[in-house]
Amino acid sequence: MMIPQGVEGGEKGEISLGISWPAAPEGWKWDGKEEIYRSRAIFDYIDGAGEVYLAYNFKDLFVRQFEKTGYPHIIAELYDMGSSNDAYGIFSLERQDEEAGIGQGSEFGGGLLRFWKGKFFVSIYADGEGPEVGQTILSLGRTIANSIQLTGQAPKLINALPDGKTGLVEKSIRYLHSHILLNQRFFVATQNILNLNSKTEVILAQYLRAEKKVHLLLVRYQDVKEAEAALQSFKRAYMPEVFEKGLLQTEDKKGTSAKKVNEFVLIVFGASNEREGEELIKGTEKKIGEM
Amino acid sequence: MDEERAITRRDFLRGTAGMALAASLAPEIWKEAAYAGEKTKVILIRHPEAVSADGKVHGEIVQSMVDDALKTLLSEKEPLQAWQQLFNSSDVVGIKSNSWRDLPTPKELEAAIRRRLMDVGILEKNISIDDRGVRNNPIFQNSTALVNVRPVRTHHWAGIGSCIKNYIQFVPRPSEYHGDACADLAKIWDLPIVKGKTRLNILCALQPQFYGRGASFFDRRYVWPYKGLLLGSDPVAVDAVGAHLLQKKRIAFFGEDRELDVLPTHISVADKKYHLGVSDLSRIQLIKLGWMEDVLI
Fold first, then answer.
1. How is residue B89 annotated by DSSP?
2. Residues on chain A touching B219 (C-beta within 8 angstroms)
3. How confident is the model at residue A97 (pLDDT cuts 50, 70, 90)?
4. Is B39 within 8 Å of chain A by CB?
5. Is-above-0.80 flag for pTM?
6. Is the dihedral angle over the CA atoms B114, B118, B120, B123 positive or is it negative?
């Protein structure tokens, strides 16, 4: 692993952001080094996955390792994402495990703790298994979360999702920007047929209806014109045979429907029937109106 | 947007089956699909004693599994005849292995391949086993044939660690292929050092990892002793079956197809865009040999 910038730490860890780290959580001792990766240097740390973080406007990464003889190392990564929207976004992109009650949103599963708080996203894991490892990861996570003083808001666009009895799967809500990020979670097309870019806000959510998965994609563009162009582009590439109607039965006998509402484009994938798709579109329209 | 026609989600649905994405949309479709044309063969062979309870791989058993699978794949009665269909004594052969720290290609499997290549009459000095050093390895640089062998496992950037993915070490900057869930990995197979050389693809499913989170993730809870090997001449078909196997295991383990970090779209893209092989399960003839308990697929 390349270390482009680093500092030798003292007994107790404090990094420039004013966040305190424990020096020896549960007997695991910090090895005294802090690796710092700024912007594109993230590729030196996580190779190809750096692209995902950059798509969320990533700023800086701080990495510390904790050691205990006879136990696996524990690695803690603190990402400064620049905004709470993007800290939430990177957290949401891969969320699937149970809430761990740490920070403003978290999950812990398979030895990996992920949480967000304020403009920070944190990932903590061990490079092997062993007794006490899980508890130490959680303890370290709580300490870091408590030392982050400022909280932040989750993206307001989430409020546009129909909820209540609609079957929304909370853990499935993803907030993202780009085509690359969307394809990470829900493959739409090899090319950017929705004209997504660093300024578009995208919510992808799954609804469970009669045990069938339906996906709602909600995109907010910079203006109405951009939204209209994106809808046209999507229809041309995805549903050319029903271009005007914007409602299609795909090859799996499920429905895809697409609609523009002001600067928003709404698409439902995998609806069991026309009514189901329409319900989700209408529900979203209503919530957009209330925002 | 690029003028080139986009491959969309609908292309996968239209394919009736195939990789994990389509399978996840219609999990029973393999059973229902009827494809009348010639199918690509993939061999699955399993043996209950290939791996002992402590994780030790038994070389002799693995050797017999490889031999039996290759005989079936190439419709030969003797292992040597099968190997001779693929290689001749003048070949220079690179065995592209995988040395990932937590789940490497077992040495016993590498040795089984090397042994049979030597039985064909290939000089030991003309055979090399390598992973991260392949670009600077003279045997690989001058190879006339390649064997592609790696464990099947979940992968943070590609969805699954596949045969297609295993060639990423042939490029100077692997990270350039990590974007968009590694969708364009099959492009690597067109590089001169690789193109047209791969005679055999083996996905080692002796102890696959069926689930994982994050870039460095390894957790023995999600590794199981399947004790199998998947072999074929078509890397895309072998990978499509491998992805399907991991998906079936996730469903069996979690009671649902729990999402991977990314979808393994590179398998379908290798088929639909790069025409490297067949990803549609309905167009793959899976031949199962040996131990059938909990075979899953």
1. T
2. 110-111, 129
3. confident
4. no
5. no
6. positive
